[in-house]
Amino acid sequence: MIQSERMIKTFTELVRIDSLSREEGKIARQLVGRLKKLGCRVRVDDAGKKVGGNTGNVIATFPGKKPGGPVLLSAHMDTVVPGRGIKPIIESDRIRTDGTTILGGDDKSGLAIILEVLAVLKERKIPHPTIEAVFTICEEAGLVGAKHLDIRSLKSRHGLVLDSCPADSLFTRGPAADKMEFTVHGLASHAGVCPEEGISAIRVAAEAIARMRLGRIDAETTANLGLIEGGSAVNIVPDRVVIHGEARSHDELKLAAQSSHMAGCFREAADSHRIVKDGREVRATVESKIARDYPRMNLGEDAPVVKWVMAAAKKLGVPIACRKTGGGCDANIFNGHGLNVANLGTGMREIHTVNEYLLLNEFQQTARVVLEMLRFK
Ligand SMILES: [Zn+2]
């Protein structure tokens, strides 16, 4: 029932529309038009204003008569860079780029699947539940479109995000993440004339980082310092350095422990640097800002949406397994608001690189699974 040719056409049309984060206006208008033609009620929220973008999230309701409550289907409209002027090349088993840009299968494969599924439900007059289709902005910019979506306005309690790679993978568990910013304050002085009258913020930061547990902490927990900036000239003892980092864990207690360990390392390093200047003690200090970036996704195998997907896969005779990821996606935000939303792969590969491609058999399989799930839910 899925019309592969049509879905591929939709996909290639969508990837030809540039839509970097905060510049999703053109694709949003295109999608609003397509959704209305399919019979959806469509609105665009004000998230764009809040994040400095040129459109908000697109929220569509595709009315159905089946009882049991509506179902959420979601994908994101934005892409990473280099993402302008994408020229998709269709081969026998895949769609790839010309090597100069990403493909944007992340996540236009998800958008195309949702549009195709709605089209088939409509033209075949297949009984289905009401579907809420949510196309978000700025997922790649830190899930900020979903973070600014009024999730309480959605009626769905269960659903799927279509935003991961292998079609045989239903991601049901993902970590919570903290983001952090540490600002180390030292004391500036002339590096040649009176270095002893200064405190090097770079040295304090280096000592803190050297004693910090980073990378893979355990099977459920990771941590990274990814950005560092500080100092102003080689002949000045640096008085300030700023370090940005993150920690993630599937376990809230482990996440809290890791985040406080990282802050503790900076505190201890700062404490060990003090000088006496003009009869007064001056010490290094550190400002630590730690905030929750997104909540975890943690669906059991008995969650309704997991059961529906598994039943659909079984019926179609395709293998799908529940998996956990170390990444975050819009599903984390939906789950944080109490919805049960898993993330099903669409067949994209090597995402966020110019080698990105989309495997056509997996792309079609996911569309068939989603359609089957809605038919028999
Ligand atoms: Zn994505």
Give a description of the structure.
The chain is α+β, with helices and mostly antiparallel strands. It folds into two domains: 4-175 and 296-376, Zn peptidases (Aminopeptidase, 3-Layer(aba) Sandwich); 176-293, Alpha-Beta Plaits (2-Layer Sandwich), CATH 3.30.70. The chain contains ten helices and 22 strands. It has helices spanning 4-15, 25-37, 47-51, 105-123, 144-147, 201-210, 252-271, 304-316, 330-336, 360-376, and strands at residues 41-44, 58-62, 71-76, 89-90, 94-96, 131-136, 158-164, 169-174, 176-185, 189-190, 215-218, 221-230, 236-237, 240-249, 274-277, 280-283, 285-294, 297-298, 321-324, 340-345, 348-349, 357-359. Strands 1, 2, 3, 6, 7, 8, 18, 19 and 20 form a nine-stranded mixed beta sheet that branches. Strands 11-12-14-9-17 form a five-stranded antiparallel beta sheet. Helix 8 packs across helix 10 (360-376). The longest helix is centred in the C-terminal third of the chain and has 20 residues, at 252-271. The mean pLDDT is 97. The structure holds zinc ion. The site of zinc ion has 5 residues, from helix 4.
Layout of helices and strands, plus pairs?
Blueprint: H1 4-15, H2 25-37, E1 41-44, H3 47-51, E2 58-62, E3 71-76, E4 89-90, E5 94-96, H4 105-123, E6 131-136, H5 144-147, E7 158-164, E8 169-174, E9 176-185, E10 189-190, H6 201-210, E11 215-218, E12 221-230, E13 236-237, E14 240-249, H7 252-271, E15 274-277, E16 280-283, E17 285-294, E18 297-298, H8 304-316, E19 321-324, H9 330-336, E20 340-345, E21 348-349, E22 357-359, H10 360-376
Parallel strand pairs: 3-6, 3-7, 7-20, 8-19
Antiparallel strand pairs: 1-2, 2-6, 4-5, 5-22, 8-18, 8-20, 9-14, 9-17, 10-13, 11-12, 12-14, 15-16, 21-22
Helix pairs in contact: 1-4, 4-10, 6-7, 8-10
The structure holds zinc ion.
Residues 76, 106-107, 139, 163 line the site of zinc ion (ZN).
